[in-house]
Amino acid sequence: MDTIFSNIIEDSRKYTSLGNVASYIPELSKANPHDLGICAIDVNGNEYCAGDFDKKFTLQSISKVITLMLAIMDNGEQRVFSYVGAEPTGDSFNSIASLEVKSLHKPYNPMINAGAILISSLIKGNSAQEKIERILNFTKILTDNENISINKSTYLSEKETGDRNRALAYFMKSYNSMEGNVDEILDVYFSHCSMEVTCRDIAKIGAVLANDGVLPWSEKRIISKEICRITKTIMVTCGLYDASGEFAMHIGIPAKSGVGGGILAAVPRKMGIGVYGPALDAKGNSVAGIQVLQQLSEKLDLNIF
Amino acid sequence: MDTIFSNIIEDSRKYTSLGNVASYIPELSKANPHDLGICAIDVNGNEYCAGDFDKKFTLQSISKVITLMLAIMDNGEQRVFSYVGAEPTGDSFNSIASLEVKSLHKPYNPMINAGAILISSLIKGNSAQEKIERILNFTKILTDNENISINKSTYLSEKETGDRNRALAYFMKSYNSMEGNVDEILDVYFSHCSMEVTCRDIAKIGAVLANDGVLPWSEKRIISKEICRITKTIMVTCGLYDASGEFAMHIGIPAKSGVGGGILAAVPRKMGIGVYGPALDAKGNSVAGIQVLQQLSEKLDLNIF
Amino acid sequence: MDTIFSNIIEDSRKYTSLGNVASYIPELSKANPHDLGICAIDVNGNEYCAGDFDKKFTLQSISKVITLMLAIMDNGEQRVFSYVGAEPTGDSFNSIASLEVKSLHKPYNPMINAGAILISSLIKGNSAQEKIERILNFTKILTDNENISINKSTYLSEKETGDRNRALAYFMKSYNSMEGNVDEILDVYFSHCSMEVTCRDIAKIGAVLANDGVLPWSEKRIISKEICRITKTIMVTCGLYDASGEFAMHIGIPAKSGVGGGILAAVPRKMGIGVYGPALDAKGNSVAGIQVLQQLSEKLDLNIF
Amino acid sequence: MDTIFSNIIEDSRKYTSLGNVASYIPELSKANPHDLGICAIDVNGNEYCAGDFDKKFTLQSISKVITLMLAIMDNGEQRVFSYVGAEPTGDSFNSIASLEVKSLHKPYNPMINAGAILISSLIKGNSAQEKIERILNFTKILTDNENISINKSTYLSEKETGDRNRALAYFMKSYNSMEGNVDEILDVYFSHCSMEVTCRDIAKIGAVLANDGVLPWSEKRIISKEICRITKTIMVTCGLYDASGEFAMHIGIPAKSGVGGGILAAVPRKMGIGVYGPALDAKGNSVAGIQVLQQLSEKLDLNIF
Fold first, then answer.
1. Residue closest to C138 by CA, chosen among C126, C153, C125, C151
2. Partners of B187 in the beta sheet?
3. Which residue of B lies nearest to D102 if distances are taken between CA atoms?
4. What's B110's domain CATH number?
5. A160 in a domain, yes or no?
6. Is residue A32 in a domain?
7. Which residues are CB-neighbours of A267 under 8 A, at least 6 positions away?
């Protein structure tokens, strides 16, 4: 089993040269484009790692999976989905046009930026700081890692280059689609995008999702089965930006990518997988990471369809 | 087991009064809105039916599943997806705007009208008639029913009211996105939408998909596993118009609906399901049919996520 | 006075090398890109010509001015503008997206293709042939030229490459925005676009518009003052595709261009101008023709603002 | 002459009951919907007033005319139009969608909100306060009125409800279409929208435009003829939101409306006109004000086409 993983990493590393490290945030551009790592943790707690599995990177859009679950736990499914839709969209992740053109008073789904900002506004807490603490604590439990923290310089970079997200937030405010103070909400959003993890950390989150909400390492239920299912479904339909359909078609595993280079995957009833490879394709997904997951899906027959 | 099915039908029939029969085609408006039937056929060939399972209706958009499979068999996956995308879209099924606005030279996916018309253009055959025959024959094999035929008056209705589809076809022609004669292609399209079936027929198609391409009743392989997977994936992401996300989130079964009132569902490795209930919700899906599938998914634990 | 005109042509001819002859229709691509001519006819009937003023070209979009006037004469202002708007648009001339996205049941204005096709549908006549005859006769009167005719090979070219216009027409049909038979309406449309003229011919049309509807050469009223005003207004706001604003800002003369290389201009109370220069800029307007009009506007103080 | 004006006001006042006072800003909703006034000042300085010509109201979008002129004087035509287009658009005044969908790095024109915010960013000055002072001083000169000031409570209302404008500004920032600090730029924008005037004040601005930049009361040139022409042209093509085409077609006078109920009009070489009637039609234009201008245009033959 361990050989399968190291062979796949070895075989896929050549694809890292086909992509580029994200450059819109100075911090992200410092990553080594040739890094590639994987960690898988099955629902019995067994762990398989290979390559650069212990390199640190920021969650970026992968954090949207965490806040979605916490927001539903905080507000109930019905309230959350009265603010944000559950439909995939052909628009790009930071699109604002459809909100206006179709008079959408709900962003399409929680995985595009507009939807994820809205989700940030729904996290309970008396201040931005308290909300950030709650997200951080929830992430520590999901990753079984007390040391998860926010990368300060990435957070500051996000904040400085965040005008498009400000536009999205003010637009939703002007439509009365979102409540609360825009600066505070974006502070929460930029913070959770900047949480720093390794492949093992996100593999653990995937394992909790795969195990329907029960921590595989303690058999303690943290999330309801229903919330886990909703989350995995939205990962399939919306998890890889506008390559979600293609990924589902060829790999068939619920997954969520981030421009930090990570991909979190959850194979229902089987295992969680964390992949890291910061060289991205044109759509913002880890180019070698996708290769890794494709080979793994085939070798271990993980496709759910 | 049979009681489960009849109870679900009995319990769900009240929802038929929440919807309306499709009216844009005169033929469709003649359906009885209170009809509701189900048929399930598992991968071992066992059959469970209840309600109006033997009422006839036209496939409409459900036929897009059949032509997608045949087009891939005729052209290979690569060629088909060089003409049409595999990404879900938030646009409505008959949308033309994104083709222009985003300079899309490929329609988003094979389940929206633009994509399905393009798929029709890819079916092999020397004439519209020959293509229609091939689709019909393939459908007869998938349904194990020699008597499948085209409802002539529905076909004529489709043709008469098909100006939006003509606009889509000519638009793709003008972009050089589609080859062939528009009138002939639409003839194929209107014909396969007008094929007449029962719940049992579409349950059989679902059973073939569930069984990865092997006919459960003869153990003969008809379609490759890969094509079945692609098809089921696209059913999950795009099968219920712009309610696909919501359906996947709550029911979690690959499915394709049609405005004739049918829903074809395929539970991987388990069973095919056909539901019929012509009273539609605002998005064009069988309102009671969705209830039936939701209850069945819960009772038999069919959710794939 | 004559020297002004020949100097302007001499001076502007160098700009012909900055553009390209239209290529989407084979017939248009045969034009000589270095041709440049002008003819001006004032409201007293005086005529000033220079350069290639007697070269023939097809009206293309300039014909939209003629059919707009005839449609209002046939139907009244109120009826015409119940079918088509009078607002400029930032969309391109052949756009379909806004019709869907904004649920426009009226095309923006009569100068974009959708609007002009709709105007063609409003021309009175019992057959396409009769409608074409009526447009042709009206054009003969406006140009004081019995020999105006349709260029057959251009007409056939238009018809062969007209899929985008078919898409627009069927879309409007499907929205019930347009009545009548699509093939017949497009036959009228392709025919009037293919009428062949010289600079002098379109200068005469401009002179009639400038003279508020009275033929300068016979003092006979042909069109009402109100219809002339409406037409000149729409020429200012929508006459040069998406360069209309820029043209109005710098030149300030009601004008309508065509991809055949012509520009028809009408200076209220002063003169009509016809310019021909088939080398087009990126927006489809005669690149040297615009220079000619700019210089003329300055030298003769023709700017209406 | 005076009777013409009072008759028109008397005759048009009934139309005030067809509209509604703007309500999105609390301050605007306090206006009396039945107010209606007019003032005309010809290029010789003669003045004709009737009705509620001395009622105060805020300029709102009319101020866009003032800042456009000042921005061109500050930066030159070329620089201004490298940041903002000159093309009319069918989009609504506060639209953001086309900026994204068409990757517009320039807003369509200076009369829509995006364009006007950009224009505000181009006004010279070392601070928001200094820019506001410069606009105020320029307005005092144009209106020959030392007492022009900013209505503080309207300004605060604008600021409080300005989230859509914030979205537009941040969007342009994120596209690098606009330079400077968003809060400061919007402060300038909200301030100039809140300048308080009467019909006589805006009639004077119109008279300066009509007189090609020379103050009629002192024969001093304040603005170049070229800038006046550009401004009047843009008023024709974009001055009345998405009713600009209809207004030009029937009334034919360069004009700019504001949701405060004012309309500033400038008849080239003839006169400036200020109208006030706070009851607005569905498109945000003074419903009775348009009637007043239509009657005046007919009676005094002011249509430029």
1. C125
2. none
3. B101
4. 3.40.710.10
5. yes
6. yes
7. A206, A210, A253, A254, A273, A302, A304
Sign of CA dihedral B195, B200, B201, B204: positive
Across the interface, whether the CB atoms of B254 and A305 are under 8 A apart is answered yes
Q: What CA–CA distance (Å, rounded) separates B100 from B82?
A: 18
Q: What is the DSSP letter of D280?
A: B
Please give the tally of structural domains in chain B.
Answer: 2
Residue B108 phi/psi, 5-degree rounding, is -50, -50
Mean pLDDT of chain B: 96
- Both tokens of A252, joined, read 């068939």
Interfacial D residues in 174-203 facing A (CB < 8 Å): 174, 182
Structural domain that includes position C168 = 62-193
| Residues from chain D contacting residue C211 (CB–CB below 8 Å) | none
- Residue B104 confidence (pLDDT) above 90: no
pLDDT band at A90 (very low <50, low <70, confident <90, very high): confident
Examine the domain organization and report whether A167 and A278 are in the same domain: no
Active site residue A276: no
Which residues on chain D are in Cβ contact (under 8 Å) with A171?
96, 163-164, 167
Check whether residue C55 and residue C203 sit in a common domain.
yes
Write phi, then psi, for D171 (nearest 5 degrees): -60, -45
Q: Does D43 touch chain C (CB under 8 A)?
A: no
| Predicted confidence (pLDDT) per residue in B34-76, tens digit | 999 999 999 999 999 999 999 999 999 999 999 999 999 999 9
Question: Mind listing the pLDDT tens digit for each residue in B66-95?
Answer: 999 999 999 999 999 999 999 999 888 889
ipTM of model = 0.95
User: Residues with Cβ < 8 Å from A273, sequence gap 6 or more?
Assistant: A38, A39, A40, A41, A203, A206, A253, A263, A264, A265, A266, A267, A293, A296
Instruction: Return d(Cα A95, Cα D238) in angstroms, integer.
Output: 27
pTM over 0.90, yes/no: yes
Q: Do both C75 and C163 map to the same domain? A: yes
C-alpha span between C120 and B56 (Å, rounded): 44
Identify whether A64 is a catalytic site residue: yes
Task: Using the CB atoms, write b or e for D178-200: b if 16+ within 10 Å.
Answer: beeebebbbbbbbbbbbbbbbbb
Q: Among candidates B70, B24, B6, which has minimal Cα distance to B259?
A: B24
Q: Could you give the angle at which helices A199-210 and A63-75 cross, rounded to 10 degrees?
A: 40
How sure is the predictor about C1, in pLDDT bands with cuts at 50, 70 and 90? confident
Interchain pair A230, B237: CB under 8 A: no
pLDDT band at C241 (very low <50, low <70, confident <90, very high): very high
Quick one: pLDDT band at residue C135, thresholds 50, 70, 90?
very high
Question: Domain for residue D149, yes or no?
Answer: yes
**Per-residue pLDDT at D185:** 98
* CA–CA distance, A183 with A169 (Å, rounded to integer): 9
pLDDT in tens, D223-253: 999 999 999 999 999 999 989 999 999 999 9
Contact A167/D163, CB-based, under 8 Å? no
The secondary structure element, H or E, covering residue B197 is strand B195-197
- Say which of C87, C98, C248 has its CB closest to residue D245: C87
How far from A292 is each of A17, A37, A56, A296, A299, CA to CA, in Å? 14, 9, 18, 6, 11
| C192 closest CA partner among C247, C128, C147, C235 | C128
Contact by Cβ (8 Å): D199, D38: yes
Decide if D254 and C305 are in contact by the 8 Å CB cutoff. yes
Residues B161 and B88 in one domain: yes
- For chain C, positions 98-157, list CB contacts with chain A under 8 A: 101-102
Residue of A15, A48, A61, A131 with catalytic role: A61
Query: Who among A88, A232, A245 is closest to B305 (CB)?
Result: A232
Q: Which residues of B are catalytic?
A: 61, 64, 189, 241, 259
In a domain, B304, yes or no: no
Q: Which chains touch C (3 or more CB pairs under 8 A)?
A: A, B, D
